[in-house]
Amino acid sequence: MKVIAIDGPAGSGKSTVARRLADRLGLDYLDTGAMYRAVTFAALRRGIDPSDADDVARLAARLDLDVKVDAVTVDGVDATIEIRGPEVTRAVSIVAAIPAVRAELVRRQREWAAARDGGVIEGRDIGTVVFPDAVLKVYLTAAAEVRASRRSQEVSDLAYDVVAADLARRDALDAGRDVSPLAQASEALVVDTSERSVDEIVDELVTRL
Ligand code: DC
């Protein structure tokens, strides 16, 4: 199985780099952040408190999740837009810190990879926990201002300061949680994306395979 793991904080360029790399290599691409967002979306929609670990874990276990490159469907409902919205973004780190939710989504991520003999998979714990045997582990970083400005361009209805503060809060939660925190695998190739083009980065990754 050929898994390429792409980890890093929000706004580090994971999705852009991972998609381009998958295209280049003819591999499938999986956004595991979208899976945590989809569970959060489903909880909010059903009026389940995102910090109620038992209820959210029960929900995750029976959820019909379909995460494709350009469409995310949750129990038959198209959630592609809503999972990127402010309500889900605010609550997702709480949901992602629930151990039973992580166990369920990690199981699904491994199933996804086994079914297609690998792929390019992005997240926070892919190289460290989910696929410790990945053929290539990449940890993307970027200066905090660069990451915040990328995010504020994506969500044009929010002011830069609001986006920057939310990003900092989410990074602290994702890196500080007990279970599978955001971390660099010791053997990961660390790439700062602040001042490099996507093609340049993808070219470098291809040479590492
Ligand atoms: O990459 P993203 O911003 O869409 O991820 C959403 C949230 O999900 C993020 O705050 C951290 C969490 N996440 C995680 O804990 N583990 C992953 N493998 C992917 C995302």
Relevant terms:
209 residues; Rossmann fold; three-stranded antiparallel sheet; 51% helix
Can you tell me about this structure?
The chain is an alpha/beta fold and 209 residues long. It has one domain: 3-Layer(aba) Sandwich (Rossmann fold). Helix content is 51%, strand content 16%. The chain contains nine helices and eight strands. Strands 2-6-1-7-8 form a five-stranded parallel sheet, sandwiched between helices. The chain has a three-stranded antiparallel sheet with strand order 3-4-5, with helices on one face. Strand 3 and strand 4 form a beta hairpin. The chain binds 2'-deoxycytidine-5'-monophosphate. 2'-deoxycytidine-5'-monophosphate binds next to helix 2, helix 4 and helix 8.
What order do the helices and strands come in, and which of them pair?
Elements: E1 2-7, H1 14-25, E2 29-31, H2 32-45, H3 53-62, E3 65-67, E4 72-74, E5 77-78, H4 86-96, H5 99-115, E6 118-123, H6 126-130, E7 136-141, H7 144-154, H8 160-176, E8 189-192, H9 198-207
Parallel strand pairs: 1-6, 1-7, 2-6, 7-8
Antiparallel strand pairs: 3-4, 4-5
Bound molecules: 2'-deoxycytidine-5'-monophosphate.
Level-2 CATH architecture: 3-Layer(aba) Sandwich
Strand content: 15-25%
CATH fold type:
Rossmann fold
Q: Distance N terminus to C terminus?
A: 14 Å
Number of strands: 8
Q: Give the neighbour order of strands across the main sheet.
A: 2-6-1-7-8
**Approximate helicity band:** 40-55%
Query: Structural class, please?
Result: alpha/beta
Please identify the top-level CATH class. Alpha Beta
Shape: globular
Main sheet record? 5 strands, parallel
Q: What is the N-to-C succession of helices and strands?
A: EHEHHEEEHHEHEHHEH
Total number of distinct structural domains = 1
Summed over residues and divided by their number, the pLDDT gives a mean of 96
| Number of helices, counting only DSSP H or I runs of 4 residues or more | 9
Radius of gyration over all CA atoms, rounded: 16 Å
Q: Provide the list of bound ligands, each named once.
A: 2'-deoxycytidine-5'-monophosphate
- Give the low-pLDDT segments: none
CATH superfamily: P-loop containing nucleotide triphosphate hydrolases
